[in-house]
Automatic annotation (TrEMBL), chain A:
<dbReference type="Pfam" id="PF02470">
    <property type="entry name" value="MlaD"/>
</dbReference>
<dbReference type="InterPro" id="IPR003399">
    <property type="entry name" value="Mce/MlaD"/>
</dbReference>
<feature type="domain" description="Mce/MlaD">
    <location>
        <begin position="39"/>
        <end position="116"/>
    </location>
</feature>
<dbReference type="GO" id="GO:0005548">
    <property type="term" value="F:phospholipid transporter activity"/>
</dbReference>
<protein>
    <submittedName>
        <fullName>Outer membrane lipid asymmetry maintenance protein MlaD</fullName>
    </submittedName>
</protein>
<dbReference type="InterPro" id="IPR052336">
    <property type="entry name" value="MlaD_Phospholipid_Transporter"/>
</dbReference>
<dbReference type="InterPro" id="IPR030970">
    <property type="entry name" value="ABC_MlaD"/>
</dbReference>
<dbReference type="GO" id="GO:0005543">
    <property type="term" value="F:phospholipid binding"/>
</dbReference>
UniProtKB/TrEMBL annotation, chain B:
<feature type="transmembrane region" description="Helical">
    <location>
        <begin position="197"/>
        <end position="220"/>
    </location>
</feature>
<keyword id="KW-0472">Membrane</keyword>
<dbReference type="GO" id="GO:0005548">
    <property type="term" value="F:phospholipid transporter activity"/>
</dbReference>
<feature type="transmembrane region" description="Helical">
    <location>
        <begin position="12"/>
        <end position="30"/>
    </location>
</feature>
<keyword id="KW-0812">Transmembrane</keyword>
<comment type="similarity">
    <text>Belongs to the MlaE permease family.</text>
</comment>
<protein>
    <recommendedName>
        <fullName>Intermembrane phospholipid transport system permease protein MlaE</fullName>
    </recommendedName>
</protein>
<keyword id="KW-0997">Cell inner membrane</keyword>
<dbReference type="InterPro" id="IPR030802">
    <property type="entry name" value="Permease_MalE"/>
</dbReference>
Amino acid sequence: MRTRTLELTVGLFILAGLLALLILALRVSGLTLSTNGDTYTVYAHFDNVSGLTSRSKVTMAGVTIGQVKRITFDKNRYTGLVEMAINSDVDTLPADSTASIVTAGLLGEKYIGISVGGDDLVLGDGDEIVDTQSALVLEELIGRFLLNTVSKDD
Amino acid sequence: MNGVVDRVASLGRIGLDVIAAIGRSGIFLFQALAGRSRYGNGFSLLVKQLYALGVLSLAIIIVSGIFIGMVLALQGYNILKDYGSEQAVGQMVALTLLRELGPVVTALLFAGRAGSALTAEIGLMKATEQLSSLEMIGVDPLKYIIAPRLWAGFIAMPLLALIFCVVGIWGGAMVAVDWLGVYSGSYWANMQNSVQFGADVLNGLIKAVVFAAVVTWIAVFQGYDCEPTSEGISRATTRTVVYASLAVLGLDFILTALMF
Amino acid sequence: MLETDDFIVDLQQVTFRRGERVIFNNVDIRIPRGKITGIMGPSGCGKTTLLRLIGAQLRPESGRILVNGQNIPELGREELFSARQHMGMLFQSGALFTDLNVFENVAFPLRVHTKLPEDMIRDIVLLKLQAVGLRGAIELMPDELSGGMKRRVALARAIALDPELMMYDEPFVGQDPISMGVLVRLIRLLNDALGLTSIVVSHDLAETASIADYLYVVGDGQVLGHGRPDDLMNSDNPRIRQFMQGEPDGPVPFHFPAPDYVDDLLQKERRR
């Protein structure tokens, strides 16, 4: 086989491999090339973030407006601190909006839903959503249900 | 009584032989990779081997990838249907391929196709005294013949594994979206949400690199170490496929335990 | 004994073992310069091993192997590289590189050891191929050549660098009479024309004795005898005699060790 053709085919092969890596990175794994300029950061404390993970969706009215960037434990307030990246063009979130951790479907994954408040002030980069609703944990629900039935009998 | 002692002794001898072979192969690997060949354009030798090992394996990798992706989608759909979670088929296909099947199946196919070819080629060179001739002329066969093949294997197989995953996911999409009616948006969106580049794609790639090293090393060593007769070569070729496959499966377990 | 003190290769007290088998036990072999020396012996006696020891592919357990005064096993990598430039070896199977054509095969040693320009390399390759009668085959690939032709190309490759020492490993095995004749003639011709020293390892008595100036007969890890072919033919040593005369029975027995013949037959009868 001629050297030139050989080199060309090998070159194409290597390119195909690298292209495959690129496809896997961008189309399959959802790695985004967005820079920080496209989003701004909003914080929220939750008593219980169970089930929520980084890269979970942040939605409003059912529309995805951002992503959870990081979840850390706040040592001082004993809560979970969720750091969200909200798309920069969604810049009219009232300061008293509520952030709840909700489940997609009955056994689906957790995501954050933001309900609109009424304040004139809007959230900016680094602001915190104060009104939060934690994730519903199945055991607590059952416990509450049992407690209710017991107290009703009294 | 003597029979038992003899059998234990022969087991011990086999064990020592195995350890000696592993030692030989380690020295062999080191000598092949350390330093460059005195003669010969290393780059063009590498390119030739990349063609022989990589490009020529594309056919079997792509065809197998597509079929495995399609089967995964089909079976996955059937199983997820019972839980009402058909939309998760996309992430199932992707995760299975990226984490496990991509690296492992590629490595097994590579061992069978490219590995056995390597062993036979090198074994034949040994049997026809080409390796000795090189030595007598003053060229170290480890650096001139073996090293380009090793490096080509290390580079080509991970690339093949990546291509395998991509065509597999695409094959799965064909079955799931076009045939089974899963909504195309769910297939890809769910996949993108659950597949993480670092944890899944890169870990799978690391596996592929490790497998590539082990398979190529075994293939090349078996060829170099074989008895220079036609039976010796055929035995060595069989050994390559068997040992390489076992090694890949064993390492897969260890790596999976470490990574996931 | 040849009247010369000039030995290009001098093996002194060389011992070589393979596993537990002793291949050579304290042997002394001296190869006179400029002559064809044959090394003969029964199969498996280590003749090929001898060539590999001289060519530094194997190292002896003890003893010295002097080639042109240098002790081969002790040479460093660079020195060995230049020493190999002066040795040519023709392997039993020719051992041409199957992925290169005839021209590239013969040019290979030139490219490894020299930085000669392409046209000079071409001239030399043509010269060498002309010497072995295969200049016309210059573009062919090894698998297009017959066995005898392969060996001749390998010979051209072995003399490409004009070595001082040529080693032939079983050159006559499996050759038809014409190829045999060609090879015999070439070995003699090249040796005399190029002033080489040739070592021919073979168990083919007739051909080797016809061109060798001197013979060594090796067996059982030792040198059984050495001398001019005519002298050895008339030797008193029974082992040399058996080998040179081709006698089926003698020090190397005809019968594989077995129990007594009569007992063997009788036992079989009884068991039935």
